[in-house]
Model the fold of this input.
Amino acid sequence: MNSGPILHSFDLPDGISRRQPTSTPAMRIARIADMERDAILGAIKQLNGDKLMASRLLGIGKTTLYRKLKHYQVSQ
Done:
């Protein structure tokens, strides 16, 4: 199978030797800040506004949650 000390594309199995596209044009890259904001707001909504429980489930302190809400300009 191997042609010598150098590995060539024809040495690889068929499924691996074919090049796959590295990205798709329709792929959207989300900002981490947007994902964090969505996670916080989603948790609060699912918990009917219980911010203490949301902070616990998100793994952050209550003070941190309030600071992030202020940062994202979300009314409390």
